[in-house]
Amino acid sequence: MVQAKLAKEKEFVQVRSATVRFAGDSGDGMQLAGSQFADIASMTGTVVRTLTDFPSEIRAPAGSLGGVSGFQLSFGDEEVRTPGDEPYVLIAMNPAALKMNLAELQPGGIVIVNEDEFTPGNLAKAAYSSNPLETGDLSSFRVIPVSMTRLNEEAVRPMNLSRKDAARCKNFFALGMTLWLYDRPLQPMLEWLMDKFRKNKAIMAANGASLRAGYNFADTAELFRVQHTVATARLPKGRYRRVTGNEAAALGLIAAANRAGRALVYASYPITPASEILHELSKHKEYDVRTLQTEDEIAACVAAMGASFAGAIGATGTSGPGLSLKAEGLGLAVMTELPMVCINVQRAGPSTGMPTKTEQADLLMAVYGRHGECPMPVLAAATPADCFQMTFEAVRLAVKYMTPVMLLSDSFLSSSAEPWRVLAPEELPDLRIAELPAGEDFAPYRRDPKTLSRPWVVPGTPKREHRIGGLEKLDGAGTVSYDAANHQRMVNLRAEKIAGISRDIPPAEVTGAKEGDLLVIGWGSTYGAIAAAVDELLHAGRRVAHLHLRYLNPFPANLGEILSKYERILVPENNMGHLCSLLRDRFLVNALPLPKVDGRTFRIREIQEHVETLLGGLFR
Amino acid sequence: MVQAKLAKEKEFVQVRSATVRFAGDSGDGMQLAGSQFADIASMTGTVVRTLTDFPSEIRAPAGSLGGVSGFQLSFGDEEVRTPGDEPYVLIAMNPAALKMNLAELQPGGIVIVNEDEFTPGNLAKAAYSSNPLETGDLSSFRVIPVSMTRLNEEAVRPMNLSRKDAARCKNFFALGMTLWLYDRPLQPMLEWLMDKFRKNKAIMAANGASLRAGYNFADTAELFRVQHTVATARLPKGRYRRVTGNEAAALGLIAAANRAGRALVYASYPITPASEILHELSKHKEYDVRTLQTEDEIAACVAAMGASFAGAIGATGTSGPGLSLKAEGLGLAVMTELPMVCINVQRAGPSTGMPTKTEQADLLMAVYGRHGECPMPVLAAATPADCFQMTFEAVRLAVKYMTPVMLLSDSFLSSSAEPWRVLAPEELPDLRIAELPAGEDFAPYRRDPKTLSRPWVVPGTPKREHRIGGLEKLDGAGTVSYDAANHQRMVNLRAEKIAGISRDIPPAEVTGAKEGDLLVIGWGSTYGAIAAAVDELLHAGRRVAHLHLRYLNPFPANLGEILSKYERILVPENNMGHLCSLLRDRFLVNALPLPKVDGRTFRIREIQEHVETLLGGLFR
Amino acid sequence: MSAYESECCTADQPDATISLLTKKDFQSAQEVKWCPGCGDFGILSQVQNVLPKLGIPREKIVFVSGIGCSSRFPYYLNTYGIHGIHGRAPAIAMGVKCANPELSVWVVTGDGDSLSIGTNHLIHCLRRNLDLTILLLNNQIYGLTKGQYSPTSEFGKKTKSSPLGTIEQPIHPIPLALAAEGTFVARTVFADQAHLGKTIEAAARHKGTSFVEIRQNCVVFNDNVLGTFTDADTRGDHWIYLEQGRPIRFGKDGRKGLAMRGTQPEIVAVGEGGVREENLIVHDARGASNSQAYLLAGLAPPEFPTALGIFRQVEKPTYDDLLMDQIDDAIAKNGRGELAKLLNAGTTWLVE
Amino acid sequence: MSAYESECCTADQPDATISLLTKKDFQSAQEVKWCPGCGDFGILSQVQNVLPKLGIPREKIVFVSGIGCSSRFPYYLNTYGIHGIHGRAPAIAMGVKCANPELSVWVVTGDGDSLSIGTNHLIHCLRRNLDLTILLLNNQIYGLTKGQYSPTSEFGKKTKSSPLGTIEQPIHPIPLALAAEGTFVARTVFADQAHLGKTIEAAARHKGTSFVEIRQNCVVFNDNVLGTFTDADTRGDHWIYLEQGRPIRFGKDGRKGLAMRGTQPEIVAVGEGGVREENLIVHDARGASNSQAYLLAGLAPPEFPTALGIFRQVEKPTYDDLLMDQIDDAIAKNGRGELAKLLNAGTTWLVE
Ligand SMILES: Cc1ncc(C[n+]2csc(CCOP(=O)(O)OP(=O)(O)O)c2C)c(N)n1
Ligand SMILES: Cc1ncc(C[n+]2csc(CCOP(=O)(O)OP(=O)(O)O)c2C)c(N)n1
Ligand code: SF4
Ligand code: SF4
Ligand SMILES: [Mg+2]
Ligand SMILES: [Mg+2]
After folding, report:
1. Beta carbons of D334 and B286 less than 8 Å apart
2. Are B486 and B541 members of one domain?
3. Which chain D residues are closer than 8 Å to A280 by Cβ?
4. Does B620 map to a domain?
5. Residue A321 and residue A381 in one domain
6. DSSP label at A357?
7. DSSP string of B116-144?
8. Residues D285 and D159: beta-carbon distance below 8 Å
C-alpha cells in the first residue's frame, strides 16, 4: 500500500500559493465542493482564481472518461494570477477522474483518491487494465487512498437518508479533508449548509457530518505529512465577490444600461460558451432587462440593432460560428451608425472546432470580418472580472460614438472565476447622453465635430422622423447618395470616427522595465499567464515588460511609442499570430508571435521559458 | 449656332487610341450601338476595352437623369489598357445623357447631340433651366448638334414602320456617324443586321438605312473637321472574342469542370453584380452545368460544398453582403477540406453600400473573415478576360489542395469587356485527379506528403465510407478529436497546406525597372490603370515598375525579394489599404497606400500624378 | 365588409390632435423611384391613406424593410424608418418593438425578401405574435435584381436564372403564415385599391402580428401576372372575396359557392341541384382551429378561384405584452432593480 | 398498416448482393455519445434496421446533419456522412443530391437545428421536393447546448433561458411541412419502435422529400415530455394512429372517432347517438388537396389527441429529376457540350 510510504511526522508548511483540483464524475458534486472551497479561501483572505472543466459529453455514463467534471483553483497572495499551471493536490473521486487529470499534476504532488471506487467495473470504464493504485504508475506522486464512500456512509448513517442521498454527501467528505489540508475553518461551510438546506434538515445535517468527518479523518488519520498554510493577499479595501467572465459580462451590461437610463435588450441565440450570459440576464427582469432568444444569430444581431434604433441599449452575444453569421448585421450597424455591443466569447475553431475549448482566433475576424470598409471598435477583457469593466466600456463607447462595438471574451474567461471588488453604482460613469436642444435644426447624419458621432434620435421624438439604412448616405442629411465624392467622404468619416476613439481610451501601460530587451504584448485571457511570467522574469533580473491590450481597434494612442522602446516584441496568443499581424502592419515592428492553438490557455512556464530562450539568443 | 464655328477643312488624324461614349435613355439602344462599334473596332484590328454604365434605377421615366444608360469604349493599339480615363467623343441622345456624362469628357472633346430631343420637356426632366446648346456652357467642347430624330425618320420612311419601331432605329444613325468619324467599314454591321433580323426584313432594312444615313450624313454634312484613324494593335495570333468579367468567369468554371471530367454545380443567390454568372451558366445545361438558385447565400455556399463532397465541382458566386453570409459555410469547407470555389464580385460597401458601384474592399474579409484559424487561398482577376484564367486556376487549386478557394472580381470587371484570345481546350491543364489505388489503406485525412491535401473520395466509392464535419478531426483518421496536441497539429497542417501553394503558382513578375525608385503594386481591376500609368512613367524616364498580384493568399514565393529592390512601394487600391496592410505585415516594408473609395476605378492619370508627386518628393 | 371593422388600436391611445394628420403628412421628401406603372405605387398610396386614420402620432410609427424594390417603402413615408438588409426586417422590427412597445411598427417586404432569404424570420415573428403589421408585396419575381424567379414564381417560369423554366414548386404565403400560427392572415391585391386599403387598415388595427400578402404587378419583369384579376369580365370566376360571417359565393351574380364534401372543398352552383345558401361554407376567420383558413388558403387555380380577404383573425397575447408583463411582475415581486443590490448579490466578503 | 407499403426505391436499382447487408453493417466504429436513456438511441437503432431493407449499397448512402445531439447521427452510421453546421443540413444535402442524384441522401436534424436557425432551408427543401429523407428528432428542447427552450417547447416552459417561462407560441412541424408543400409528411414517436421503423422505411421509400417528425425524449433536459405516450393506459386517448383508407378511430377499443362538423373536426363516440363508422373521417394521405392533412395536423391536446402516421403522401416530380431532365433535354437538343464550341461562341475574329 502506498499509504505505508507516508511518514508520520506532521508539520505546517507556509506557501505563497497553492493549486488544487477536484475531479469526479459529473454526479459527484465536484463543482460544488470546489466553489465552496474557493469561497472559504476567499473569505480567509487569499486571492482565488478558479477554472471549471465540464465533461465533454452532456451526460456520459457514470464512471466513464467522458463524464469527468473538474474544478481547479489556485489561491494565495496577490501574485496568484491564473488558476494555476499544474495542481499540487488532486482529489480524484473515481478512476476516470484520476486518468483524465493525472497528466497535469505537479510531479511530487498529492493525489487523494476515493479508493472505494477503484472497482474492476470502474477501472474498466476508465480504460485501466490494472488498478493504478496497485501498480507503480503513480510513484512520482504522493497517493493518499481514502475509503471515502465507506467513511461517508458511516458519517451520515444517523440521518437515515436514502442510499442515493447518502452517497451524494461524499463531496463534502472530500471538501472536509481539503479544508484540513489547507488549514481552513469549517464554520463558514456549516453556516452555508444551514442556509442552503434550511428546508431539508436531514440533508443539512448529513452534509455537515460528512464535512466534519472528512476534516477529522484528515486530522487524525495522519495521512498527510504536512498541513499547508497559504499566504494571504493584500487587496484594495472593499467588498468582494467571485465572478466568472460570463457573469461579469452580464452584470456589466445591466450596469451600463442602468447608468445610461435605458432598457437593456439582449438578443442572443444559445451557443457554448456564451449561453450563460443569456441565462444570467434572463434572471434579472426587474432591472428592465429584456432578453430575446431569437431564431438565429443573424436575427439576434439585427434585433439588437433595431432595439438601439428604438432607444434601448441593444446587445448580442455569441461565439465563433455565430460571429461569422453576424458579419452582415454588424455591417448594417456600422452603416446606420447605431450603438450596440456584440460580445464574442471565443472558442476553438475553425468551424464547429472544439466548442468547449478556449482560443483567441477571432481577433482578425473581429477587426476585418465584414465586407466593405467597415470599421468598428474591438475591445477585449483580460480577466474574468475585467469582463465587467470592458462590457461597461463597450457600452460607453457604443453610445458615445454611435457605433457597434465588439467585445472579445473567450471560453477560459467565461468559466474561470476571480475576486471582483464590487463597485458602487456611483463609481461607474454616467452614460446618459444630452438630448439635442429642441429647436436645433436636425439631420440624422450631422456629426458632433469632436466625436464625429451622429445624434441618437429615437422614434417617439416628434418632428425628427427620419429613415436610415444600409445604402450609402449623404453626408449630413443621411438620405441615400450614390455620389462619388460623398462616398469617399463618408468612408473617411466612418474610419476617422473609430480611429478617434484612441483619444478617449486610457493610454497603454507597461509593467516592468520602461525600456529594455523585450516587451511581451498580450490581449484577452492570456493576461494572467503573461503577467505571472513577466513577474518571474523581472524577479530573475530580466529587462522585460508586459503590456496588455484591452483596446485592439483602435489601439491606444501611445502604443507605437512604447513599442519603439524595446529590442524585441513577443506576442503570446492563443492563435497563430493575430495581434502580431496587426502590430506589424500598423507599426512596422518585427513583433514575434508565440502561438498556442491547442484549446488551452498558456501556462506561465511556457511563456517564461520561451522568453528565456529568446533572451538567451539575444545575448549569445 | 455652334455648328457655325466648325471649320470647313476635313482631314485625317492618326491617333494611337480613342475613347468614345454612347449615352442615351435606357430605351435608346446605346448598349447595342456601343457593342456593335466595339465589334467592328475589334475586327478591324484594334484592341477594344469597353465599360457599360447601367442606369441606377430599374426603369426610370423616359428622359430622366436616373434613366441614362451609357457605353464607353477605348480602342487602339495594344497600349489601350482601360476603357479610357475620359471620352474624347460623347454621343448624347438627349439632355439627360448630356448632363450625366459631360463632366467626364475631355476638354476639347466632341459632343454629338440629338438636338431634336432638346425640347423644353426633356430639358426640364434633365433639370436644365436653359438649353445648354444655346448657352455658352459647352464652349470648351466641340458640339455637333444633329437632328437625329428627324433624319432617322426620313431614312426609314420607305420601310413603313410603326412610329415606335421607326424611332428605335436612331441608335443606328448615331452608330453610322461614329463609324464614319473613326473611318470604320459599314459592311460588317450590315452583315450582322442581315443575320440578326433575318426574320424581320423591314426592321433589318430600316436599321441598315438609318446606319447608312448617319454615315453619309457625317460624310457629306461636313460636321467634323477631321476623320480619325486609330492605330491597330499587335496581338498574339489567334481567334478572339470580347468577354466581360462575368462571362469569362462563367466560361472558366465550365471549362475547369470539363477539364476535371466532372459536373459543375453552381449554387448562388442573385445579387448585383454577380447575378450574370448565374444567368450565363444556366444557359449551358448541355455542358452538365447544374445551376441551383438557392434560398439564400448560406444555402448556396454549403450546397456547393455538399456538391463537392459528392464529387462535382462545387462553386458559388456572390457579392459583399452575400460574402458576409457565407463566412460560416466557408469555414466548414476549410474544416472538411473540400474543394470549392467562391467567386466574390465586389461592389461598394459597407452593408448595402452602393450596389452598382465598384470597390475592392473585401480583400481583408476574404483573407481573414471567418472565425477561428481558417486559412483559404485568395485569388484575384486583373482584367475581364483574366476572370477566365483565374477562375480556372481557382478550380485547379481547389481540387489539387482540397480547399475552398476565393476568387475576387469586382463590379468594374464584371461589366467591362476586353478581347480574349479563345483557348483551345487542350491548352488548358488537365484537372483530373488520380484515383487512390484500390487496395490502399484509406483514411479520409491521410495527406499527400507533397501537397498536404487529403484524398477526395466521394460517395459511391465502395469500402471507403467515412464521415466528416466541422468538429476538429484526428490527424489522419479524420474522426472527431478534442486532443490538445492534435488540434495544434491540425491547425498547423491546414495553414501549411495553404502556405505551400506558393510553390505551385507563378512567381511574381514586374514590368519596368527591375530595381528602382518605386514599385507600384496592385491587384484586381486596377491592373489596366496601373499598367498604363507605369508605362507612361517609364516613357518619361522614371525608374519605376509595376507588379500585379493575382495571388493574394498565399503570395508568390518571390514577392519579398522583389519588394526589397525598390526604394518605395505604392499600393493603389479601391479600398483604404487592404493589400498595403498585408504587405506591411508579411514583409515589414513601408508600403504606402493610395486609396480610392468613391465607387469608381482609378484613372490612369490619378496614379501617374500621384507617383510623380511621390518621386518629386523623393528627389527634393 | 364587416371583416374590416376595427377592434383595437395597436399602439398608444389615439391623440385628438393627431386625427388632423392627412395623407400628405406621411409623404416624405424623397423622390419615389419605382418604375412607371409599378404596382408598388398604389400600395404606398393606400398605406398613406390608412396611416392618418389610425390616430397614431407620426413619430410613433416605424417602418422597417429588407432589400428589394418593395423594401424601398420606408424612404417614402415621413415616419421613422429602417431600410434594413435582405430578409431580416422582421428581426429588426422585433428589436424595435421590444425596445419600445409603444411604437406602431410596420414591416414592408417582398416575396424574395421574406419568402426566400428571410422565411425564417417571418415565421418566427408570426408565431411569437409580436404586435407588428407585415405587408408582403408579392410580385412573384425578384424586381430589384432584375428578374430572377422568386419562391412564389409559378412552376416552369422562364426568367433570367431559369431560361428553361423553373423546376421548383412555388411556396404559398398564406398557408405558410397560418402554419406559423399567424393571428391575422390576409390577402389582397394592388389592383383593388378599396380592398387594399381596408385590408391594410384591418391589419394595422389588429393586435398581434398581422400578415398581409399583397399581390403586386412588376411591370418590368413580371407583367400581367395578375391578368385574371385585372380583367374585370372574368375576375369573379377567378377570385373570391371572403367576408366574415357570410357564405362563400363567387362568380357572376354570386351563382357559384363553396361547400364541403367530406374534408375537401368543392364548388357548387347555388340554386342548382338543390344546393342552397345554407349548404355553403360560412366564412369564419375566428374559428377555434385553423382548418377552415387552410382550406380557403389552399384554393388555387386552375380548379379553384383564389381567395382574397382575411383568412384568420384571432386574439392571442402578444410577445411584447408578455415580455413587459414578465418585467412588471418581476418588479412587483422583487421591487425595481437597484444596481447596488445586483452587484452585491451572492457570496461576498469584505477586505479591510 | 397499409400506409407503410413501399412504392418505389429512392436510389439506384437494388443490387442482389446488397440485400445481404445487416444492421451491423451500418454501425460505425465510433462510440455513441448520447446520454444513457436518451431517446436518440432507439431512433438510431431503427434507422440501422431499415437501411439493410432498402437494398441500397452502403456506399451510395449519405447522411447529412446539422449541429445538436440529434445531429451527431451520421457518425454512428457506417455510410458516407457530413456533420454540417447548425441548421444547414438540407442545403448541404441539396448540393450532394444534385451532384449525384443516384445517392440515397438522408438528413437528420433536431427541433433547434431545423425549426429555429434552419427553418428556411427545411421549407425550401420541402417545396423543391428533392429526393431526400428528413428525420427531425423533436425533443422540444436544445439538448446539446444544455437546455434552452426550442421553437417546439410548449408555451410557458421554464428553461435556463426562460426562468419565468417562455412567451412564445410553439411552432408545429407537421403543418409547417405541409405548408411547405411536403410530398411525404409523417409523425412518429421514439417510444413505439415498430411504428418508428415502419414510418422511417416508408419515408425512405418515398420518392421526393420525405419529412418525418420523430418525437423524442431528452432525459436530461426535457424528460417525460412524452408522458402521455409512455403511459400505456391512457395512450389511446391521447394519440391516434393514422392508417391510409381507414376511418379514424381511437381511445379504448377504438370507441372514439373523428368526424367533421362543417369545416371543423370533432370527436364522436362511435356507436352512440347514431354515430356509425361511416360518419368518421377516412384517412386519406393522398387526396387532391392538403386540407385533410392540415386538419389532422391541427389536432392538439388538450381537446384532441395527437395524430401519428403519414399525414400526406403524394407523388410529384423531384427537383433532382427535373434538374437532370433539363440537362438531358439540352443535350438531346444541342448535343453534349463541346468545350471548344462554347469558348468560340458569339462574335469572334481572327488576328493573324
Ligand atoms: C444578402 C443579400 N443577398 C442578395 C441581395 C440582392 N437582392 C436585393 S433585392 C433581392 C430580391 C428582391 O426581391 P423581392 O424581395 O421580391 O423584392 P422586389 O424587388 O421584387 O420588390 C435580392 C436578391 C442583397 N441585397 N443582399
Ligand atoms: C451557428 C451556431 N449557433 C449555435 C450553435 C450552438 N448549438 C449547437 S446545437 C444547438 C441546438 C440544438 O438543438 P436541437 O437541434 O434541438 O438538437 P438536440 O441537441 O436537442 O438534439 C445550438 C443552439 C452552433 N453550433 N452554431
Ligand atoms: S422592377 Fe418591377 S417591382 Fe421593381 S420598381 Fe420596377 S416594376 Fe416595380
Ligand atoms: S442532452 Fe438530451 S438529447 Fe442530448 S444526448 Fe442527452 S438526453 Fe439525448
Ligand atoms: Mg418580388
Ligand atoms: Mg432538440
Report:
1. yes
2. no
3. none
4. no
5. yes
6. S
7. GG--HHHHHHTT-SS-TTTSSTTTTSEEE
8. no
Cβ–ligand 4 distance for D299 under 6 Å, the answer: no
Please give the pLDDT value at position C19: 62
Domains parsed from chain C with CATH numbers: 3-246+283-323 (3.40.50.970), 247-282 (no CATH)
ipTM: 0.96
At residue A374, the 3 state secondary structure works out as: coil
Which of B487, B504, B521 is at the close of a domain? B504
Segment D337-352 shows an average pLDDT of 94
Strand spans (E) along B180-305: 226-230, 238-244, 264-268, 289-293
Q: In b/e form, how buried is each residue of A83-102, taking b as 16+ CB within 10 angstroms?
A: bbbbbbbbbbbbbbbbbbbb
* Confidence class for position D6, pLDDT limits 50, 70, 90: very low
Instruction: Please state, as a whole number, how many other Cβ atoms lie within 10 Å of the Cβ of residue A239.
Output: 15
CATH classification of the domain holding B410? 3.40.50.970
- pLDDT over threshold 50, residue C169: yes
Torsion angle of C-alpha atoms B266, B267, B270, B275, degrees rounded to 10: -10
**Quick check: B324 and A327 CB within 8 A?**
yes
Beta strands B566-573; B516-523: pairing state:
parallel
Residues of chain B positioned with their CB less than 8 A from the CB of C145: 270-272, 275
Query: Cell numbers at residue B259, please?
Result: 477539364
Q: Is C217 on the interface with D (CB under 8 A)?
A: no
Count chain A–chain B contacts defined by CB atoms under 8 A.
Answer: 213
Burial D244-263 (b: 16+ CB within 10 A, else e): bebbbbbbeeeebbbbbeeb
DSSP strand pairing (A313-318 vs A340-346): parallel
Co-location of A199 and A259 in the same domain? no
Answer yes or no: is the C-beta of B322 below 6 A from any ligand 1 atom: yes
Predicted pLDDT of residue A57: 82
Cell 465589334, located at residue? B39
Distance in angstroms (rounded) separating the CA atoms of residues B303 and B349:
26
Residues B441 and B572 in one domain: no
Contact call for residues D151 and D100 (beta carbons, < 8 A): no
For residues B185 and B226, membership in a common domain is answered with: yes
Q: Which of B87, B84, B55, B82 is nearest to B70 (CA)?
A: B55
Report CB contact under 8 Å: A285, C96. no
Structural domain count, chain A: 3
Task: Nearest chain C residue to D288 by CA: give it.
Answer: C264
CB A533 within 8 A of CB A603: no
Task: Point out the residue among B294, B460, B470 whose CB comes nearest to the CB of D60.
Answer: B460
Once rounded to an integer, what is the mean pLDDT over residues A582-595? Answer: 98
Ligand 2-lining residues (CB < 6 angstroms): A 269-271, 297, 321-322, 325, 352; D 67-70, 86, 110-113, 137, 139, 141-145, 150
Is D123 an 8 Å CB contact of chain C?
yes
Report the predicted TM-score, pTM, of the whole model to 2 decimal places: 0.96
Work out the minimum CA distance from C171 to partner chain B, whole angstroms: 12
Q: Are residues B404 and B536 in the same domain?
A: no
- In a domain, residue A308? The reply is yes
Asked whether residue B420 falls in the same domain as residue B554, the answer is no
Q: How many CB pairs under 8 A join A and C?
A: 215
For residue D141, give the H/E element and its range. Answer: strand D141-142
Query: Which of A56, A57, A58, A64 has the most ligand 4 atoms within 8 A of CB, as the residue to mutate?
Result: A58
How is residue B50 annotated by DSSP? E
Residue at B526 is within a domain:
yes
CA–CA gap between residue A44 and residue C44 (Å, rounded): 70
Selecting from D168, D263, D329 the residue whose C-beta is nearest the C-beta of C260 gives D263
Together in a domain, B528 and B494: no
Question: Tens digits of per-residue pLDDT, D72-108?
Answer: 999 999 999 999 999 999 999 999 999 999 999 999 9
Give backbone dihedrals phi and psi of A146, rounded to 5 degrees, phi first. -130, 140
Which grid cell sits at A347?
A: 472558442
